[in-house]
TrEMBL record:
Domain Aminoglycoside phosphotransferase: 35-204
Superkingdom of the source species: Bacteria
Protein name: Aminoglycoside phosphotransferase family protein
InterPro entries: AGP_Transferase, Aminoglycoside_PTrfase, Kinase-like_dom_sf
Length: 248
């Protein structure tokens, strides 16, 4: 019998692996609807959907290995990172999906959430005030109008698979929708700043690196409390707090 492996689990959802099958358990069926619809529309490799029986979605494993994990040096080649950039560009150039995604939230709402998180981080002595203030200043560049693109919305490196320097699959589409293309590029390179040049080379067009750096700060500031409250460690080497410190 294949061993059951817990890939990720918290109060909102859980993903289990049994052999070559991933079982995604999510009480919010709207997220699963978004994921299924996005994978059908995306012009990039995605997992095969095997079956769906709420609250479970079963998908097949994709070949290859992830580009890496946040907090760990990536062993993927520059060519693989460039291939990821090219795949993301293909996604961003695709016809828009029907709904906004995580990368397409109202900027006023994002700014309000950001200010609230910054206040919480300081008043609860989670992070030094000067660190929070500096990164809040950097994050301001991300709070500017953007042209809608088909975005993945949670394009962390553990969600992108490659084999022989080719992208073989992009997983976890529950946050997909219309959004800021630079949000995806920033998410992919969060904590992997040394690979941004390869990604941009594959993406094939000029990008505003100041906005990507702003998204690094913004995402990290917004993420620290959630990660702590859900049993993750944003203080681990190379993770969100180190990303914030690098802006100093």
């Amino acid at each position: 019998m294949d061993e059951v492996k817990v890939v990720v689990a918290h109060s909102e959802r859980a993903t289990l692996r049994v052999g070559d099958v991933f079982l995604k358990v999510d009480a919010d069926q709207a997220r699963i609807d978004i994921e299924v619809d996005a994978m059908a529309l995306a012009p990039v490799p995605t997992p095969e959907i095997l079956w769906r029986k709420p609250p479970v979605l079963a998908i097949a494993a994709v070949p290859g290995r992830t580009l890496g994990r946040l907090g760990e040096p990536s062993t993927a080649s520059p060519t693989a990172w460039a291939a990821a950039g090219a795949a993301i560009r293909k996604l961003h150039d695709a016809p828009l999906p029907p709904r906004p995604g995580r990368a397409g939230r109202d900027l006023a709402e994002v700014a309000a959430d950001l200010d609230g998180e910054c206040e919480w981080l300081v008043t609860h002595d989670v992070l030094p005030a000067d660190l929070v203030t500096r990164n809040r200043q950097v994050a301001e560049a991300a709070l500017a109008p953007w042209t809608p693109a088909f975005t993945h919305g949670d394009l962390q490196i553990a969600h992108v698979f490659a084999d022989d320097d080719e992208i073989t699959g992009i997983i976890d589409w529950s946050e997909a929708g219309q959004g800021d293309a630079l949000y995806d590029l920033a998410t992919l390179t969060l904590g992997q700043e040394e690979h941004i040049g390869d990604v941009v080379a594959g993406y094939g067009t000029d990008v505003d690196l100041d906005v990507i750096q702003a998204w690094w700060s913004l995402r990290s500031l917004l993420g620290v409390r959630w990660l702590v409250e859900h049993g993750f460690d944003p203080f681990a080497p190379g993770c969100e707090v180190d990303v914030l410190r690098s802006r100093m």
